[in-house]
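re: ur question from the group chat, yeah i did fold both. here u go
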Amino acid sequence: MNAFMHANFGITDFWTFLIGTIFIVMLPGPNSLYVLSVAAQRGVRAGYRGACGVFLGDLILMLLSAGGVATLLKSSPTLFYFVKYIGAAYLCWIGLQMLLACWRTLRARAQATAPAPALVPQHSPFGKALAISLMNPKAILFFISFFIQFVDPQFGAPWLAFALLGMVCELTSFIYLTAVILLGVRMAESFRRRRRLSAGMSGGVGAVFIGFGAKLATATL
């Protein structure tokens, strides 16, 4: 089977790629945590809007990888560090926003003087998820260091190999994020009854986002 994939589609070691992709996608990351938060607090539709932002972000990263940006980042440490520090700062900013929302919610509950603010800001989940996906350290390192290793550089139509590998990535991500959304919806009722629990989740996710930002800031090629 591997020989067939190599000979006809320019993909080397397909099964290793598939297994690796499944495990990498299932690792907790900014994308899945944001989609989970949105689905838990705003429902299935909002969750899928966030998921669509993730799919588009991954597609853009794939196209950049196929267009040689991965090679450019590897050959230009200055550019790589610029990109990763911008991404790290953005993830930390999102995490700080969620921590502040958690704090405001708990304070409003304690004072009982104003309605608690939304823990997931009422912006478009699609746009926010797209930005998070493009700054996601797991996705950036995946497409720079892992994804391109399975494309045969001697194959006459490398775009075909990139397209097929991209389809595998998107399908795996769709299945996983669907499970995440369904889990979030199941959690929604508990969050509606227990505002403190919802605030705690928001604060926890915010702290994790700051951790992801720190991880990206220290990432190397």
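okk and heres the other one u asked abt
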Amino acid sequence: MNIFDSLLQFFTTPDAEWSIVTMPFMVLFIVFFGGYIWLNRMRHTAMLAYVVVFSLFFAFKANGWLMLLLPLTVLLSWKMTDMLRRCEAGRRRWLLAATVAVELLPLLYFKYTNFFIETLNGMLATNFSLLSIILPIGISFYTLQAISYTVDVYKGRFSAEVSLLEYAFYLTFFPLLMAGPITRAEVLIPQIQERKALDERLVYAGLWLIIVGLLKKAVVADYIAQYNAWIFDDPLGYSGFEGAMGVLGYTLQIYLDFSGYSDMSIGIAAVMGFQLRENFNFPYQSLNLTEFWRRWHIALSTWFRDYVYIPLGGNRKGKWRTYLNSFVTMLLSGLWHGASWMFVIWGALHGIGLIIHKASKWWLDKIPNTWYVKFAAFLITFIYVAVGWVFFRSPSVESALTLLGHIGSDFSWDYLPPFLSTRLVWMLFLVLGFALHGLRKRHSDRLSEWFVRSPWLVKLLIFVVVMQLVINFRQDSVQPFIYAQF
């Protein structure tokens, strides 16, 4: 096969492993970025169109021709929201409901049709056959982003006029396409509309985030993932100690995997001149579940707060209504993650945990804020979150309970020496990952600032070392981002 045929095949064939962490994307991005710099200096409109085309190609590589849902959503969402902006007061509520329904319908069909059929079969003892449906990658994220734009326009929180091209850029922007973070119109669209030169500091800060994201995802998370999978696939095939290590491993893996993606996504946007908000803020340092959800997947947490919890009444309708609103919000958050009762159970666990924390706050505030009280609060919160991840990851309730029960009945520190001798690198990654997570945000910011100010040769050396680590620790195949499946 000659070079022309290889290029033709690359540009016309979807790739199940396609993501921002793969080598083909990185090479293509470098080529794309050269054209982006030139167009950004010359013609703003041409630059926007260039990025939209590249974003649609990115969606094609990930989804094949299912990517056509994306431009269709762009067109319908933009047109109907524009009509909503201009229509008379008496029709606005109905048009809002219609617009949100149109934006939500593809997600409901592709993600929840078979879940509904399975549930119906179980409840009514029917035997409707399941449909052959492939979930388009990124649909959950761009759907919520479209809904947030429509609601913000309706409520007057975002009033700027937006062209179809600008909206297409906003909803298809490739760094956000696969797994967010969900970005509000007020954050990104003003930057899209503003013509400005690239900021050198922002470019280097973005490069630092890309490096950190690669270390998190492609080195540590992917390396520890294989052992974690063994534990969850066969809970009784290992000792209780090994099971506990698998639970700790997955607790670290899902954080590094998703925050690594967020870092790379925000970093790529920064290299292109766009500043996005952070999506993770050292969540495992939290002292309660309320704090955890202010630090974990911040974009999704604030989305459900602003567009579900507050519209339900928030904390404005009394104590019991507040508890109910918290519980319903977390149930819906769990269901958003996937069409499975395991995700509903995970959401319910966090909903119950939030209710317990809210109900106990009046006497918790009376406890002296000493270091050992903080440590106890941290430990309780961390264990609760880790147990929740068992239900999130396990294929069934029975499997989750089997793993937790086996850890409780067969845990012994005697397994530690042989475990260290056979899985030393895995254990080092686990300890290092949690130790670095213990850093304060100011320390992380200082490290980023040091990188930005360092000579270009130091930057290059760091990047080369990280890429060598990625090559050395890579698995046989690219591990898909966990949140890409949602």
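fwiw on the second one: The radius of gyration is 23 Å. The chain has a mean pLDDT of 91. idk if thats what u expected
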